[in-house]
Amino acid sequence: MEEARIEKIKQQLQSQGYKLTPQREATVRVLLENEEDHLSAEDVFMLVKEKAPEIGLATVYRTLELLSEMHVVEKMNFGDGVARYDLRAESTKHHHHHLICVQCGSMTEIMEDWLIPLEERLEKEYGFTVLDHRLDFQGLCAKCNAARAGESSGDAK
Prior knowledge:
Layout: H1 2-15, H2 22-33, E1 39-40, H3 41-51, H4 57-69, E2 73-77, E3 83-87, E4 97-101, E5 107-110, H5 116-126, E6 136-139, H6 142-155
Parallel strand pairs: 4-6
Antiparallel strand pairs: 1-3, 2-3, 4-5
Helix pairs in contact: 2-3, 3-4
């Protein structure tokens, strides 16, 4: 499965006149192996360095930017000032969505695309064709809500 995805990314790069260099491949492999983690460029660099010790941080940054421009990865910012990178799923038209806890920083992914009816309505009512969208909800996760509820019930004693 991983090899098929790498081959597809290689073809995407070639169609735009780029090569899948060993450094780019190492970067893509790290993203594939850590798909759940929303890695920062520095995180990617540290993991790529284990596979390709000769790689530099600037090369990783350039690779991530190229992959982002080609919509292979999604560059995200969750309000903490750190850009994170997430591979786009092959089977989906749009990027998935996130629930971000502002207290503990946990992140939950919503893989279903609940916005398709809204996109259809926008096209019908406004003649606007949505090419992509991303939705992030910021709030408190279940664990932080439970801890907060525990604190407030403890205050009542």
